[in-house]
């Protein structure tokens, strides 16, 4: 039996990408450390800057007033459609998150600019994105501005155990409880880095 190196390399690279994204490690730094035989290190952002839309980034985390404030202004104003845009004025959970991140000046997974005519990254892309790190799996760990991501749904925490998300065709974008939101799925509380 011959082992094909290209598929094996692709599987290894994919595993490194997913591991780095879920654990909040820089992919490049993780790969360098693995080659050196040392544990991967978490990427550090030491600067403070103001992002478009009034969000402030401190030490790698967008401050509470940024993402939650942007997300809340769309409550009841955008319609939900499974699979997201098009048509214009509609979103699903992950395209809504991409829209909010873009408005805060944060590039979404893949780094492509937000385009309201396309769906953009899915929840699985957000689970493996190295622009955020997983800080836990409990709604109690979520702080305002964190991404609450399950395998098939996501939202933006606004604090108090609540999040803004898009998933209901009647309500459109609305406020939901984080705890117990997606029965049978594992919650990943992800903080921007």
Give descriptors for this structure:
endopeptidase fold (from Nostoc punctiforme); 5 helices; three-stranded antiparallel beta sheet; six-stranded antiparallel beta sheet; 193 residues; alpha+beta; 26% helix; 2 domains
Describe the structure.
This protein has 193 residues and is α+β, with helices and mostly antiparallel strands. It has two domains: 1-43, no CATH class; 45-192, Alpha-Beta Complex (endopeptidase fold (from Nostoc punctiforme)). Helix content is 26%, strand content 23%. The strands form three sheets. The protein has a six-stranded antiparallel sheet. The longest helix has 19 residues, at 5-23. The N and C termini lie far apart (44 Å).
Question: Could you name the CATH topology of the largest domain?
Answer: endopeptidase fold (from Nostoc punctiforme)
Order of strands, main sheet, comes to 6-11-7-8-9-10
Number of strands: 11
What is the helical fraction, as a range of percent? 25-40%
Name the helix and strand elements from N-terminus to C-terminus, one letter apiece: HHEEEHEEHHEEEEEE
Structural class: alpha+beta
Shape: globular
Alpha plus pi helix count: 5
CATH superfamily of the largest domain: endopeptidase domain like (from Nostoc punctiforme)
């Amino acid at each position: 039996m011959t082992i094909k190196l290209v598929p094996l390399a692709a599987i290894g690279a994919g595993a490194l990408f997913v591991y780095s994204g879920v654990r909040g490690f820089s992919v490049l730094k993780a790969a360098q450390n693995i080659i050196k035989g040392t544990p991967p290190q978490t990427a550090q952002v030491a600067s403070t800057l103001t992002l478009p839309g009034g969000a402030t980034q401190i030490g790698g985390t967008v401050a509470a007033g940024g993402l939650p404030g942007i997300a809340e202004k769309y409550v009841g104003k955008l319609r939900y459609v499974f699979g997201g845009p098009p048509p214009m004025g509609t979103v699903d959970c992950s395209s809504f998150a991409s829209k909010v991140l873009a408005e805060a000046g944060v590039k979404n997974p893949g780094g492509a600019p937000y385009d309201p005519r396309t769906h953009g990254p899915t929840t699985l892309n957000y689970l493996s994105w190295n622009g955020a790190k997983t800080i836990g799996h409990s709604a109690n760990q979520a702080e305002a501005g964190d991404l609450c991501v399950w395998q098939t749904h996501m939202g933006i925490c606004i604090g108090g155990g609540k999040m803004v998300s898009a998933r209901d065709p009647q309500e459109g974008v609305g406020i939901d409880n984080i705890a117990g939101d997606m029965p049978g799925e594992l919650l990943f509380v992800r903080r921007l880095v």
